[in-house]
Amino acid sequence: MSAFSEAWALLKMPFVNRGLTANKLYQGRRAGEKDSGFWTPHKDKAVAYSLFGQRGGYDDKTWVDPNIHIPEVYSVDAPKENVQLPLDMEYVGMGDASGAVDRRRVAFEDEEGIIPSYNPTKLPNEEMAQIIERILEQTAKDDGHFMEGGEIPKKDFERIFDMKGAFGNWEGMYVPSDNEYGETHEALETQYDEGDDIDWDSLVTTLGGVKGGDMRPFIERLRSNAQPVPSHHPYTVSDGLYRWKSKERYPGQDIYNWKSLRPPHPRRDDWMEEHETLFGKPYEESKGRKMWRDED
């Protein structure tokens, strides 16, 4: 890290824990899901979470469905004041800040829910689509080596995730080099200043992939300006499962045939009452259940 970068980091020092600061944080989720409260300086990890969901172990089943979900990544820039955030120790794992840096598993937990006040912004759909395209290109190029946790050149990694110059700037992180934080500072130097290759940490990112094994529908949906409509799939706040209206027809289903799509269980009527304004479609009783009615 250059002398200028160090001075700038000291000047800003926004999101802080145990001396470790970050000047930009990211969060991955699916469209329709709420802020999880967990933020990371690693953009690629946020992308992974948006694509694959939480990875808790080797036996976890895949559940993110590219034909249902739309991945989203939010970013938030540093405020002028210091914001103390605890590390997400479940994600960090063994050790403390230095161990998190060693494994590129730095994440903060916004326990007080203050980050939304700094106006996080969503990455454009086209940027997300292009990132996924580059991931698929890399996967085809190395026969899945990268997706399995294999290392690739840092410059290629930055290109895939649109992170130009991130590693040279320690991904926006900094810690004083004094005795109190010397171990973490050394970990940053080792992680970012030494070696030319880096991996995507398959256990907490790519392990298991997506439901059906094909990420290409993500790209189509990101570029279709999709909007949510009722579906046969169960809707819950935690997983945000939707069927989406788009300009495309999917096999076996006419997305435009709203009357053929029943709203989800449970609490179907309550759900429809809540989303009637959002969808702009009134509903009516028909054969014992609520049905969408076109007014065209």
What does this entry look like structurally?
By secondary structure, this protein is α+β, with helices and mostly antiparallel strands. The chain has 2 domains: 3-198, no CATH class; 225-292, no CATH class. 29% of the residues lie in helices and 16% in strands. It has 9 helices and 15 strands. The strands form 6 sheets. It has a 4-stranded mixed beta sheet, sandwiched between helices. A 3-stranded antiparallel beta sheet has the order 3-5-8. A two-stranded antiparallel ribbon has the order 4-7. Strand 1 (15-17) and strand 2 form a beta hairpin. Helix 5 (125-141) runs antiparallel to helix 8 (216-222). The longest helix has 17 residues, at 125-141. Residues 6-13 and 228-296 have low confidence and may be disordered.
Instruction: Determine the number of helices (DSSP H or I, runs of at least 4 residues).
Output: 9
Shape: globular
- Give the mean pLDDT: 75
Largest β-sheet summary: 4 strands, mixed
Give the total of domains.
Answer: 2
What is the percent of helical residues? Answer: 25-40%
Segments where pLDDT lies below 50 for 5+ residues? 6-13, 228-296
What is the count of β-strands?
15
Radius of gyration: 21 Å
Structural class per helix/strand content?
alpha+beta
Indicate the proportion of strand residues: 15-25%
Q: In whole angstroms, how far apart are the ends?
A: 61 Å
Strand arrangement, largest sheet? 6-1-2-10
Order of helices and strands: HEEEEHEEHHEEHEHEHEHEEHEE
